[in-house]
Amino acid sequence: MIHVYEELGDTSRRRLLGELCTGPKTVTDLVSATCMKQPNVSTHLARMKVKGIVRAEKVGRQVFYSLMSAEVEAIVKSALTKRDMHVTCCLKEASANYATAATNGDESSCAEIVDLAIRAKMPLLDIYQELLGPAMILVGAWYRAEKIGTAQEHMASAITERMMARVMQSVMPAKNVERTALLGCGPNSWHVIGLRMLGDYLTVSGWRTLFLGANVPHNCFLKAVDQNQPDLVLVSCVAQDGFDGGLSLIRELSGRRSSTYRFTIGVGGPCVCMNREAFLEAGADFTCSSLKLFAEEYLPSIERTGKVPAVA
Ligand code: B12
Fold first, then answer.
1. For the chain, how far is it from start to end, CA to CA, in angstroms?
2. Residue ranges of the domains in the chain?
3. Which among 16, 78, 139, 234 is least buried, having the fewest CB atoms inside 10 angstroms?
4. pTM above 0.70, yes or no
């Protein structure tokens, strides 16, 4: 069994063995789960097959790879658990490593960091709030300090959106709570990562979630409200450039409510936090500065009573 420890010393083979812990996989499954290139996956698997660590079984036209024995599985699981612990303990470091990899376009390393967090059973809320969110803020700091350029900032954003989709594939949604949330940004608001985090959190909490994305014209936003009759509408306004569009959107949304149809309006993002009173006056029921605050203070109250709590 000494071979297993040797193979775990290699990053790529460790990731493949980790994936095989969850059951038999084809090369295609492993390529999509690890973002590694197909010839690399095949080479590593062939090597580990010769060493008696994995086995291949043909089912119809497909070849499934699995761990050779329960003993191999136990070794892989215990080794991964130790490393996974490392990620949870060193979140700050993991976040910085993630930001470096994302700005270098090294999506495979980003996936590895995210996968370690997933395997460590870190909740989605923590992966978003403690790992990916701070990494994007770091990317912003590097951009401002001119350590990276616009292309790298865009690349990191695109990778992060894909990593969030990866996280979502690994979580089981809670029981359907039969409520609908509609999320979007007003005109001239292009920052969607934070709002997407909220949407994903609502989805795993059992909400039907409709995500409209960035820069949504008012009339389209209102039409989506009319068509879907959401219980909760969340608007994000991160940069000052989106202030006017965001504020007028909240006014129009608020005007859409009637005595027979009410929905809760929440708005957040740094620009909102700097102009809190204006958004509340425009008709928002609450303003909120983070996913964590929303998840721990606002959502439980909205679900329980349909009302927003008084949070300072
Ligand atoms: C990535 C990024 C972009 C990407 C966005 C890509 C994408 N797909 O989203 C792109 C390249 C498009 C972009 C563009 C611009 N950006 Co930019 N961007 C960033 C950066 C680096 C990261 C943003 C991010 O993802 N953060 C991580 C997420 C998780 O945090 P968040 O968005 O704040 O969301 C959290 C909370 O705010 C809250 N939240 C957010 N929305 C909501 C909504 C509700 C309802 C609730 C409850 C909570 C909530 O919950 C989230 C999780 O905790 C930041 C730097 C930073 N410090 O944030 C700059 C930053 C936000 N950008 C900035 C600027 C100025 C711009 C541009 C104007 C730059 C330019 N000159 O072209 C443009 C256009 C912006 C526009 N009109 O909207 C400024 C904003 C400053 C300001 N106050 O105006 C920042 C802060 C950078 C800086 N320091 O200068 N940007």
1. 57
2. 2-73, 90-169, 180-305
3. 78
4. yes
Among candidate residues 307, 255, 258, the one with its CA nearest the CA of residue 286: 307
As a whole number of angstroms, the distance between CA 118 and CA 200 comes to 15
Whether 118 and 83 have beta carbons less than 8 Å apart is answered as: no
SS3 287: strand
How many Å lie between the centroid of ligand 1 and the Cα of residue 192?
8
Which distant-in-sequence residues (6+ apart) come within 8 Å of 9 by Cβ? none
Q: Does residue 268's CB lie within 6 angstroms of at least one atom of ligand 1?
A: yes
What is 90-169's CATH topology? 1.10.1240
The preferred substitution site among 103, 205, 210, 238 for testing ligand 1, maximizing ligand atoms within 8 Å of CB, is: 238
Does the Cβ of 40 fall within 6 Å of ligand 1? no
Domain 2-73, CATH class in plain words: mainly alpha
Q: What is 180-305's CATH number, 3.50.50.60, 3.40.50.300, 3.40.50.2000, 3.40.50.280?
A: 3.40.50.280
